[in-house]
Amino acid sequence: MDLLTENDGEALYILSPLYAMFVQSYRKKRNAVTMSNVLKNASSMDANRTVEFGFFQVMYNILIDGTVCPNASLESLNNLLQNMLDMNIYHATNDAVAKEQHAVLSAVTDMLFRDLAEKERQGTILRGLCLLLEINDSLIEQHMSDLWPFMLDPIEAAEKESCELAKAILNTYAKSRQIGEYLQSFIEALNAYGEDKTEYFLRKPMFSREFLNEFSTCVYNNVPPTQALSIFQIFIDHISQTATTEQPSKKRKTSTTEHTSSQRSHRLALELLCQFLLAIRLTPQQKLSFCDSLSQVAINIIMERLDINNSIDNIRMAIPALQLHQALLNTFSDIYFNLLDAEFKNKLSAYLHQITALSSKQSSNISLTAFLFSINATFQYIYYCLLSNLKPSAVTLEDLTNDVLSIVLPKIDKSSTWNGRIMDLDKKNIGTACWKILTEDWLPTISTLVSPQHMNDITRIVVSNTHSNDQKLGEISVHGINMVLLRSAEFYELVNLRECTFKVLFDAFTSNISLLAKGSKHSEILSGLAEALQESSPRIQPLVQKALPLFQSSSMKQANTASSNSVVLNLFVQLEKLHLFPMEYFNKYQRQHLLLTMVLTERLFSIDGSDVCERNRLALLCRSFAYKLVRYRGEVGFLVGDIAFLQWWIRSTAALYVDEDTNIVGHRLYQNVVTTTVLLEKLLLSKLIEDANAGNQNSIDAISSCKSELKSIFLEEKKNTSNSAPVQLDFITALVAVLNAQRIARAKRNREATQIILDLGDLRDLLYSYVISNCSELKQAIHNFMNDVKRTSKDIDSQRFMSTSKCVISFSPILALSHQLLRQHHANTNVKDDQISALLVPILSVISPCLKYLQMYISTQHSSEEKVLAKLLGVCGEMAITLCSAVPELQNNDVTQRAVAFVWYVYEIAHSHGEEGCKNLVDKAFSGLIPTLSQDQFIEVLNCIMQKSGLEYHSEEQAVQDNVKTETVLHFLWLLMNNCSPGKCQDQRKPFREQISSVIIMISNVMEKALSPSVLKQSLRLFADIANDQSIGLRTYDISLIVAGITQLRSPNLPAALKQATTKQDANDIFEGIFKVLSGILKNRRQQLVQAITPFTAILETLVHCFRSLHPSVAIATRKRKQDNKKRMLQDQTFSLLTDHAPLNEMCARSYARLLDSLGDQSATNTANTTSGKSHNLAKAFSKHSPYILAEYLSVQADPISTISLPALKSALRPGLFSLLDICGEHERDMLMAAIDTSQKMLLKTLYADWSKTHRYTGR
């Protein structure tokens, strides 16, 4: 070691891993010898301890000799101590070996304390002392007096280690219930080192939030309530010391700028006392024991320090008094305030007001801290006065509140931020700190006392638009506080703020309109509108009349000035806040004004030269809020009075178009704008049509105008269309959808509709020709692509694939329009069949080319483009809807088969690629098709599904493909069952009932060969629907088939792939599926179950194994034992698929208990019209089998390895077990007692006693 240089110190770091490897190897060898020699003696155990610790001594001797590399030596020593702690090498016993080892560790501790004053190694030494404390706390206990200075005032580089050591010492005292001794030592250290440098030590680790939180946790968890008063007295005795105590002899160098005084504030000790008071747990009776002490503290400490005599020098003495006063109010809220007499309370309000006024004029941290605490104490005083219905004689609560607010509100800087630390308060962020206290704690309290002017100021701050982008993570800002406040329900419950909030919001928007009125092309219109808006209570109709010219003009281009851009940026923040308000917050009058404001805001601030993303974002914010206002209670208001607003929304949307290839974010915003505008259009048109059918001529003219406007827009876009701006069909599609919905709704109510209102007129012919021409263009594009593929032997480049894919994708809105046009044929008898055929034939002719293209796209590497594939599948989903809507018109079985085949294929592809959007479209198409099918067509679809199910079972190598196909079969069968309602389509139920046995057998075969848990879950869902559908007459044979299908899951020969794919959540879901099937049979098929009761009971017996878990005594058994346990369970013919994941959750246990409870339920319905006598016989039959279920439960509980041991599961199962005892007669109980062993009899006696005591009906 003497040859080591400073650069070679890294060689010392090898000692720690070397020590760990030695101990591991030695223990491995020792265990091998121990297994061969069963007998052990004390001397051998002592030798083992000596060897492991002796190696540490050798390493330590090497390190203390390495004087050349002291830093590396200390760090290596810490690593060795960490190894000793992790590997549990040292044991603090009272024998000779432990004493020798303790002496060595004491020498290590002494060595570390000798070097503790060296600043460059202080952090490493403190970490070593922390490790020694964890090894044996007695090593540090005798050095505590020497350790306090370095914990209170460590160097900056060692603050983290100092904090960790301080928390470790605190926890050591707390665990031994010696918090009082710890605080006594702490206070003595403060008395010697810290009380004269309060502001300096408050920035140190011992008074950081991390340590104070740890102190509160230790007090909460480890301080008995009986010690609380004595600990409280320790603090009070320290604070009550003579104010002019001389400075201690030990002095540390202080900063020249630090304020010194002969009078101590005891702020450090009071910080700990406040944390202690907030953390202690006391009962009401224990709090009463503090009454005498609280009175003395209030008079002798708090009041004396709060009386500052208008001297700024006395403010530092008031800060700890304010902290203590607030802590006492929070802890003893029901005692402390009532102990104070009226004179005391009057003086308190005067002192608080004096401190607030005096400290508000200063800018030092001490003054600002006193200002913040005094504001909080004042609001706290007001709150308790209101709570106790106290009216102070010196000053009214209203005046006190408004005086404080007149000081606080001007200090709030909306752009400032604060890091949350009291020590970092300054003149700029004090307003943010005050705003945080005001809004989070006291706003509901003072809202009834505030003057209108101050209420207006508060509201303006809440809805202010300022937001700093420079705010750092974790900092507090006024904007962030406001956002939290607006998301809380408490703010909206303040009735006094409502009117003021609306006025401030409305004024903010109108002020922006006034700014743009200057120098604008429409300055006269805007000026008049701005003046009307700024009236005190403007009426809505005059405002609408003044705003109409802005929307009736063809265009209004606003200059892209810096002022207008800044207005737009501020509007984003204001609109985002506005979206947080619930619609119930505003009255009808206010909602109409806000609606007009949204329309005007978008119209005036959609600047042509601004960024397109900003324009879309602004439009989305305005229109989405307008939609909320319109949808709430259907208050369309002035929007239906003149269609110009809706027409402008529709026309202006085209100018917001963004190509997805150039700007993805902008395109998504544009799509959201279109969606929102469509929703607005549907609401307004529905209201207009209702009014028009009632004879309102203005509404009739508005509908005609809207149709003409849509026709004009369509013709313009069709004429000027380009690749960057396609024809927008969403609004026309929405118009046709609304007309169809209104026609169908009036037909259901047997009301005639005015034909001219619901007729498209010449617009329909334009749409027909447009759809037909686009079908031809798409067919030609795909045809050309296919020809190119055939002509060339090389792969088609991705650019050609993308261009063709765009053509197919752009066909989606045309399909949506086509579907609505086809629906119009069903609702409108005036549409001729030849017209509908002219539209339908081209659409059907496109399906096959699109399907071929989809197959080619999937078979190439281009299918990795998930977004393109999702859109192509979306087009196929729209085609499925269109095709299924055409099947009833064609009345052709061949077409029905082709439609089902197409829908089936699209669903398989979407399911294999996880495209939920396409799957939803296919489900919608197939579900809508089923009720319209004739009986022959329904039989054809059912046979198609049955045939498909016979082709889905291959080897396990094709597991993925088989799963997709099998799940598709089950899904379409489920859709078929749930969409042929017996009320409307009774003829469809007949073929289904005739083939129900075949359907059940098919599902059982699927379950037998299932390779994924999702197949089992779908199969069980079908079984449950069949069992619960009382319109399906099930025979005993059918019930036996269902029970057999579930029983086969007990087979030990289940596919390995199925077991590997099943997770615990899957096991819980499968159990719930089995429960629903069995519960449905018990509830609706009890008569048919009699013949199959034995296998049914066997299922119930085996399900109880799903809740067993390893006994705690063998929870650390070897893997071999666990595997043997699983083999034993398999031999018992349990549900291995479920028991492999046992225990299942509590929900499954409750379901099982409900199942057992249903066994004795005589009120269950049955399709066989069971008489009361037969129902009684059924209950008797179940009572004969209930002992076998109880016996199985008892055998599980008596198992020495695994039982149902979780308390939650045992509690959940108990009601079901009691229900079994309810239906067991005396004979069944005797039989059960004779069949079980002694341990099981004891369990049964305990269960029977609990049943008799808590559950058994005795007639009383």
From TrEMBL:
It comes from the Eukaryota. GO terms for cellular component: nucleolus. Residues 1019-1259 form the Nucleolar 27S pre-rRNA processing Urb2/Npa2 C-terminal domain. One of its GO terms (biological process) is ribosome biogenesis. Pfam families: Urb2. Transmembrane segments: none annotated. InterPro entries: Ribosome_Biogenesis_Reg, Urb2/Npa2_C. PANTHER family: UNHEALTHY RIBOSOME BIOGENESIS PROTEIN 2 HOMOLOG (PTHR15682:SF2). This is Nucleolar 27S pre-rRNA processing Urb2/Npa2 C-terminal domain-containing protein.
